[in-house]
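Blinded run. Sample ID left blank on purpose so nobody reads anything into the name before looking at the predicted structure. Input follows.
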Amino acid sequence: MAYYARPNEDGSCYQPLAEHILQTAQLARSSAESIGLGMLLFVCGLLHDLGKYLDEYQRYIREVGAALAKGIIPPPARVDHGVYGALYIYIFCEKLLESSEASTCTINGKEISKTVIKRARDLITMCICYHHGSLQDFIPVGRNEEPVLLKRLRKLESTLADENKSNWEQVQSRFFNEVCSEDRLQSYLFQAIFELDTLNSHINEQAFVCHHPENAEDNSNVYLKSLQNYAWQMLVRYTYSALIDADRWDAYIYQTNSDEDYNHSIEQHLESYLHGLYHKLEEFNAKKPTSPSEAKVQQVRAEISEICSKAASRHTGLYDLTVPTGGGKTFASLRFALEHAKFLQGTAEAKERIIYVLPYTSIIEQNAHDVRDALKSSNDEVLEVHSQVTFQEDGSRAKPDEADKNTLVDETRYKLLAERYNSPIIFMTQVSFLETLVKAHGQYARRFNHLANSIIILDEAQTLPLHSTYISNAAINCLVSCFNSTVLMCTATQPPLDQAIIPLLFSENKHIIPESNLEINQELKRVEILDVRKDAGYSLEKGAEWLTNNFLSSQSVLIVLNTKKGVKQLAELLKDQQKEFEIIYLTTYLCAAHRKEKIAEIKRKLANGDRLMVVSTTLIECGVNLSFEVVVRNLAGLPSIVQSCGRGNRNAEKELGYGYIVSWNENIKNLANLSAQQTSTKSVIRSLRKVTDTRNADLLSPFAMQEYYRKYFIGSIKKKMAYPINNGNAYLYEYLDSRQIDLLEFAERWPFDLKIAFRFVSERYEVIGNGGSTLIVPYKEGKSLQVELLNAQNLPLSDRYRLLRKIQPYTVNMYINKTPSMNDDSFYTRLCREGLYIVPGFNNLYIVKDGFYNEEFGVSATGMFDDVCIFE
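Blinded prediction complete.
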């Protein structure tokens, strides 16, 4: 009898099961060898489809093929095949543990800690058992009940003594006959355990040494253990990711008869990319400056680029690149990354890709375009990864704690829905990056292994969410120490994350730009920031009068406020009070396509010398290459003020421009931590009045930024860094480092040494806010796409997926109240009650009706905006 893994798309032929198993194992192994886990992934690949050797599964797969050949929908899967390989590992490790009464076991003459063997058991069992679906909790949080993984193992184990014992013997016999002998498999298992033992020693002895004063307290051992445990949950995540990536890829290649490369590395492109970059840098340097101040800025940018070039000859590590706004850090960091990859080429530290992580989609589009243009690369080589609309699968995908129900169609669907992060250069949002680090479902987890062997540039690092600080710090440490990635924290306003309780563990000689190089800050200074809070008044009405009275002689003014409501109110006041300037409103109530057009319009008007006032939220602060004569910033955190003022006199059109700090009333109750940031900024302003050194008395100085973070990172803010839940009685971070689960009275009842709550954390983790929904707006092409989507229910999945990608630029994200009041006539309530149509079959996806979106304000209607939780 022939044993098959799957039919092809028309059911005309089948992929041999042994072929799929061996190819998956080899692919998984190849992806992990560079970090010393090749045999671990090879074993996972060998055993992941052991259960497909069941007669019942083989009957089922032939039913699928017959259905496809007739053009009908295949029957749903009814065989739990993933648990068979998982149980084999579990029984094997249990026997190994029982072979010794000591705290170690002897394997081929080598003493291995039982803790490592238990963790190897837990890790491999989890990854194989749930290679379809989602990582699960090893211990149920808050529930004294059997873990779902153990329940699934024991359900199969309980049948081995009765009529199904023959099934267990059957799958093993066929596997050992077709794939590899049992002796060889067990030899591979021992090698996999040795790999984990080696990496465990590295984690314990080298990777995480908490060395700053705060961790020298009595609790220092707790934090050290925290980082070690966190590394283990990252190992589980990496193994799971590499396994499912290899499995899905082999299925995709067979079903599509494709010859695509499994790993698209930057190595083959390095020479052409460097040639393109150097040519672009020569163009920058050859540009004739229009003023002495512009010439100075041009010279400093070239100096920063050269410093980054010299720093590229460092080994894998965690570094910071602190460059003042306007210092050309995008191309300077790209130069570091490309030359760093060139320096490490052919060594054990070789890198496969460059990943840029940025806070906003608008920055991604601009920077990716600039890099693509400079390197003369294709869209596939410089990939943009944005947040995407996701949709329900109508029950076709198995729930994480159920038996596998993936059919041939589901595997193809998975490939269509998942991004593999497998391009030489990738631009992604912070949301995508952080979700990849935390989310448990295969759609997110599959991407994780491609963060290894990378150069990761966290641009605008100061914008990383406060509540994710410990999660991102611990993950970055692991990416550097365990997964051969170099990480560059890149910003003009570097937060002291190496001083957090769970710190960033920077490499020796961590600064790309030496701290002593204060000249760069002085030479790049193009704006003087002035505190005019008292003169400008404290209401938006007074603020509009002050703007009208003080800037009539100016050519262009940017005003940045903290809330969308404030932006709209001020824009309307300015329109009523003066006619000298054109007023342009900019917030994320405008869809991405609309914002892109607005920003392009602003650039044209600035270039033409038109008189212009732009009123915006913080979306304009980072990476938007605009230059205004005057910048006005409502009171916020100092880093945000500095970023806003970086849009002033950006290209040194004048010797010195001006930024003004005002304090106009806005309702900021939904903006977490802003009040504390404002308080810290006011404290710094007061402190600088007493400083005699003029270099340090400047709000743009490194000294001022250090003072700001020293005042901000105190008290309750520290607790928020661990992602508080349950009204601050627990912390999400501690469910990943086992601390919270160790406190559970019943945790020791269950056999798992790894006590990680993957699913619990994944279900609660949100990068930005809670309850966000996607609204498709009727802006230009968006209107026809709305209609197309409503008629797409019967289209093939691939067509629906392409449609969702087309729709993305015409969406707005915001919280939707699904039970709006019938008596409240505010805009937000009316929008929820009258302005939306939910799209059937989709997750939190709505169509915005005509009348609730306009050319000036985006999502809008007659009446005032309510303050609601809306994503920036």
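Unblinding after everyone has recorded impressions. The chain has 30 helices and 24 strands.
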